[in-house]
TrEMBL record:
GO BP: maturation of 5.8S rRNA; maturation of LSU-rRNA
Localization annotation: Nucleus, Nucleolus
Name recorded for this polypeptide: Ribosome production factor 1
Species the sequence originates in: Paramormyrops kingsleyae
Its biological purpose: May be required for ribosome biogenesis.
Keywords on record: Ribosome biogenesis, rRNA processing
Gene Ontology cellular component annotations, sorted alphabetically: nucleolus; preribosome, large subunit precursor
Brix domain ranges (all copies): 138-321
PROSITE patterns: BRIX
Stored InterPro entries: Brix (IPR007109), IMP4/RPF1 (IPR044281)
Sequence ranges of Basic residues compositional bias: 1-18
A Gene Ontology molecular function term of the record: rRNA primary transcript binding
Region described as Disordered: 1-52
Amino acid sequence: MYDLKKQKKKMTKQKKPKRSPEKNESQEAVTEPESLDKASEPVFPPTFSVSEIKNKQRRHIMFMKFKQEKRKAKMALKKKIKKQREALGDKAPPKPVPKTIENQRIYDETTVDPEDEEVAFDEGTDEFSAYFNRLTNPKVLITTSDRPRGRTVRFCEQLGTIIPNAHVYYRRGLALKKIIPQCIARDFSYLMVINEDRKVPNGLVLCHLPDGPTAHFKVSNVRLRKELKRRGKDPTDHSPEVILNNFTTRLGHSLGRMFAALFPHDPQFVGRQVATFHNQRDFIFFRFHRYIFRNEKKVGIQELGPRFTLKLRSLQKGTFDSKFGEYEWVHKRHEMDSSRRKFHL
């Protein structure tokens, strides 16, 4: 045991052998060209992010410069492509169609074919057939929820100036089931109810009289006339033209007929006013414009307001009945919104 301990001490005391100077010189000779190569290479700055700047004003300035440079590069690329296309002339390749959610839409089996006999039969026998056969004229009652605030009241008044033969009345605590028989007795063809939440309009119930249907919409992005930039003068009493865009399915087709039946049959083109219901990704955008022909090629458009967006929540058969009503369609968010490319209108 004693001998083993002595041997271990001797091993630890032994020093590592020094390297020969010949080996060091050879190593230096090998490493010198590598260091020269590294020095000749360009030194790039490290990756830098604008979000790392702690000063808020400096960070904003750098971000705006970055956006401006990006915009300039994009415009330069567009000009370059345009020059190449002009140089090629007729031999230029066709422009690529950009991929959007709309043109990548999943095909719906209920898409309406205008020449379909079944669709024509349904149009001749549905609740709006009397209007489209010119047997009735639209008459609309616009009311609100209980105790409406100023913004909702102004919104109803401005809707009354857009829809001809529309009458605005305050609800005064009456139930809708009591209002509907009174509207039918006074020959109203529509009942429109504007609901609000936290002093902001957030819902619209549109009931066609006397046999329905009743549609319930969510209302968002309401902009009154005073809130619009570069708006025109107040609308006149002329009946506007109506434009309905992208109502392609059976459900969308019935909604389009419901919107069309709000306005008189023959628009007065002298007023040059247009009411547009544009469906995009199941959101219905409403705009109200006045147009003017500047020359043979240019048309000037001026928005009159108000503007708002509708999202269909349910479509009910017959008049409004929250307890015993039969629903044709109900929006179930978790089931129906599973795919971004699936639309229902």
